[in-house]
Amino acid sequence: MAAGQVAMQKPNRWPMRLWYLTLGVMLLVGAYGMFQTLWFGLSVTNLTDQVPWGLWITLDLSAIALGAGAFTFSAVVYLFRLKRFEPVARVAVFVGFLGYSSAMLALAMDIGRPDRFYHPLIYWNVHSVLWEITLCVILYSTVLIIEFVPIVLESRFFDGRYRARAFGHMLHKLTPVMAAIGLGLSLLHQSSLGATYGVLSGREIWFKPSMPVLFILSAIAGGVSLTLLVTLVVSKLSGRELIDKFLRRDIARLAAFALLAYLYLKMWDWAATSYYSHAPGTADALLRLQATTPYTQSFWIIEVFLGILVPVVILLNRPLRRQTGLLILALVLVIVGVVVNRWNVTLSGLTVPPQWSPGVLGNVVATPYFPSIIEVCVALGILAYALLALTLGLKYLPLFKKSGE
Question: In sequence order, what DSSP letters do the residues of 299-354 get, joined into one string?
């Protein structure tokens, strides 16, 4: 090499190759788990008549909650006309699409008969909250697809295909209308997910009118946090600034304020049902739950302290928020808190059987549940699908655009 000549180093491709290899292995593991489930049925899981919802429903609820950034930012940008949030609107829609499609994969495994997925569309049960959720999820997923297709048609794969681009521009003009429809549908089914538990008077742990609002607020906090987290990670890996420091501050504050509203209602909910109230059914259920599960520790340590208080301090404190590492940590903690909340809500009302339930003896303290290896395999496969699709989307789709572009 001549003197003074700068040697051009080739980019290190091994980290990405290792990443793709890991996701490939996870997909194979997931495919094995799905085959076992479809071939042998739910007998390969640890789900029972007493605990019919477990890891997959937790994954489903978490994916839907973390996809709530789509309706949040669509409403903020296109309905409230806060255009400074526009640079993250597209990635929020993409993350929302991945969240809902991942939830549908989890549900396809959990219902036991995925070939009957269309039954709610034909056999209406207007008295069922689950039926209403099913219709809302189907309709809102359609809205997400309509919002997502223009992004795909703007990618370089459609360069020179003018009809496809024209169709994409036509769909893009519908975005404000889709944002309004999506806001209504998403608020309706996010709250209905909480109402699924809250209307069950026979389950003392679940029965409370605050559930729908708690689900909405936690979903907004989690969805906004995941959108900002993805943006920061991509900025870090690509070495380019995708959003300016002011937008980063505003999104962090939005997540923090949603968390504070969630914490306020959550503490009153706890006080009304567990501290001030001594209703026999609820008190007995809580005692049995605390005696056999780490529910209390996970509630206070993970949900409240790590999932809310620590992130709020970081997100609202300017010196802490400006440190990218701490900001990423805060966002990860919010996401973990939402996932643990969905786990706690789901399992708390099932592992403690009601005293009146047929076949439940008086000395039964709790019904044990731990996911089987097949349940874990399927969950890993769904997670790999979401991560692989996110990786490829960030690489090939025009998800980030400058304001006014």
Answer: IIIIIIIIIIIHHHHHHH-HHHHTSHHHHHHHHHHHHHHHHHHHHHHHHHHHHS--
227 neighbors 73 (Cβ within 8 angstroms) = yes
* 3-state secondary structure (DSSP) of residue 106: helix
Q: How much is the pTM?
A: 0.91
Question: Which fold is adopted by the domain 27-351+369-396?
Answer: Formate dehydrogenase/DMSO reductase fold (1.20.1630)
DSSP 179-222: HHHHHHHHHHHHHHHHHHHHT-TT-TTT--TTHHHHHHHHHHHH
Q: Which residue has the higher pLDDT, 1 or 385?
A: 385
Domain boundaries, the chain: 27-351+369-396
375's CB contacts (< 8 A; 6+ apart) are 33, 45, 46, 47, 54, 55, 56
User: Mean pLDDT, to the nearest integer, of 303-316?
Assistant: 97
